[in-house]
């Protein structure tokens, strides 16, 4: 009988009970061709960085297409050549009036509001280091809603221009209250989230109570609270344009320090970032952006959640790229959602806030069902 072939996976080890050596089974060494390739592991980030400008250019092309689609599609379809002539060489026809007086203001407001909500979402998610955070977490939507329902039910103000400033003031007061309850200068992302949840619950309870008490308030509030681009005059956009511009400039100025904070506060402090000041300025930027957008169109949900989360998959977590991506792609989503709402149940419309809530709900369910949500 021949000697048994030795098994390379078995090796002698000391017997813990004494008495010599025993045999133990070890895992075989992996074949040489399965070893990780460092070059391949670093190739993906380099490819992503190289494609960032191309993705931003693609976003601008999609934004132009969504802009044209918003002008052409509606209860009455208008060919693109007539849209062009209605914008630049109007002849006084019905189509020219529809394009210039109805759809152009609606589209411009959609671009501005979408960019504001996308930027606000990017700042919020980077600040809290939570990819599922929404600008409404700071109480912006709840504060604006509480102020508007007070203006309508208590003061009798019913015009959009009249309660525009109430919405802005309510958003600012609510965001300030959340920041103070979250610790003020020593606020942390977790405490901000808890404070925002509490303030949102209290303010929405107040809104529901006052709306049920005054039925006329309920009728006015119901139309505003759904979130819509319809029947909004461009003068509202001009009124809040300085606030939107200031919020956008502040958000882009905070991109680099927010990128340091995304690595952790200890790393940010080591890099010389003034964490407390950056956090306060971030809350100001979110309030200016989302408060102004909410004041013009009402609360539009999930834009600030969907766009940063999707953009991060293409440009990475760096806020210096994430914010431009969100400022470009968020208006695309908002305008396309508005167009979908116009054509689903003709001749009626579904408000854009309802469409974005449906799309965002589907995305949120998908994210919740994932085993692990990627962190910033």
Description of the molecule:
The chain is mostly helical. Residues 21-27 and 29-42 have low confidence and may be disordered. It starts with 9 loop residues before the first strand and ends in a 7-residue tail after the last helix. The relative contact order is 0.14. The radius of gyration is 27 Å and the shape is globular. β1 and β2 form a beta hairpin. The chain contains 14 helices and two strands, in the order ββαααααααααααααα. It has one domain (63-369): ABC transporter involved in vitamin B12 uptake, BtuC, CATH 1.10.3470.10. A two-stranded antiparallel ribbon has the order 1-2. α3 runs parallel beside α8 (234-253) and α3 packs antiparallel against α11. It has helices at residues 38-72, 80-88, 94-128, 140-153, 160-181, 189-213, 215-225, 234-253, 255-262, 265-270, 275-297, 303-315, 319-343, 352-369; strands spanning 10-14, 21-25. Belongs to the binding-protein-dependent transport system permease family. FecCD subfamily. Residues 1-15 have a biased composition (Pro residues). This is Iron ABC transporter permease. Residues 1-47 are annotated as: Disordered. Keywords: Cell membrane, Membrane, Transmembrane, Transmembrane helix, Transport.
What's the helix and strand layout?
Layout: E1 10-14, E2 21-25, H1 38-72, H2 80-88, H3 94-128, H4 140-153, H5 160-181, H6 189-213, H7 215-225, H8 234-253, H9 255-262, H10 265-270, H11 275-297, H12 303-315, H13 319-343, H14 352-369
Antiparallel strand pairs: 1-2
Helix pairs in contact: 1-3, 1-13, 2-3, 3-8, 3-9, 3-11, 3-12, 3-13, 4-5, 4-6, 4-7, 5-6, 5-11, 6-7, 8-11, 12-13, 13-14
């Amino acid at each position: 009988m021949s000697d048994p072939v030795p098994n390379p996976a078995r090796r002698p080890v000391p017997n813990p009970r004494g008495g010599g050596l025993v045999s133990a089974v070890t895992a075989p060494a992996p074949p040489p061709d399965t070893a990780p390739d460092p070059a391949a592991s670093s190739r993906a980030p380099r490819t992503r960085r190289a494609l960032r400008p191309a993705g931003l250019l693609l976003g601008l092309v999609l934004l132009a297409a969504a802009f044209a689609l918003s002008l052409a599609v509606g209860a009455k379809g208008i060919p693109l050549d007539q849209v062009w002539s209605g914008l630049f060489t109007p002849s006084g026809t019905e189509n020219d009036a529809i394009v210039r007086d109805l759809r152009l203001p609606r589209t411009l407001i959609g671009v501005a509001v979408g960019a504001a909500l996308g930027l606000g979402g990017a700042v919020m998610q980077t600040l809290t280091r939570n990819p599922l955070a929404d600008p409404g977490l700071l109480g912006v939507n709840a504060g604006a809603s509480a102020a508007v329902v007070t203006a309508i039910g208590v003061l009798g103000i019913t015009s959009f221009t009249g309660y525009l400033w109430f919405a802005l003031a309510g958003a600012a007061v609510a965001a300030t209250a959340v920041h103070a309850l979250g610790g003020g200068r020593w606020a942390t992302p977790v405490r901000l989230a808890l404070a925002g949840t509490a303030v949102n619950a209290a303010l929405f309870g107040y809104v529901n109570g006052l709306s049920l008490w005054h039925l006329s308030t309920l009728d006015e509030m119901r139309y505003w609270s759904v979130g819509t681009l319809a029947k909004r005059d461009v003068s509202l956009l001009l009124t809040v344009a300085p606030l939107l511009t200031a919020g956008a400039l502040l958000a882009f100025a905070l991109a680099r320090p927010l990128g340091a904070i995304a690595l952790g506060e200890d790393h940010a402090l080591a890099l010389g970032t003034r964490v407390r000041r950056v956090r306060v300025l971030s809350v100001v930027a979110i309030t200016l952006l989302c408060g102004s957008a909410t004041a013009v169109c009402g609360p539009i949900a999930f834009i600030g959640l969907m766009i940063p989360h999707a953009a991060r998959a293409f440009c990475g977590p760096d806020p210096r790229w994430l914010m431009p991506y969100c400022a470009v792609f968020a208006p695309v989503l908002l305008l396309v959602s508005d167009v979908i709402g116009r054509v689903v149940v003709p001749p009626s419309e579904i408000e854009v806030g309802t469409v974005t809530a449906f799309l965002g709900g589907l995305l949120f369910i998908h994210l919740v069902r994932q085993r692990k949500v990627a962190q910033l």
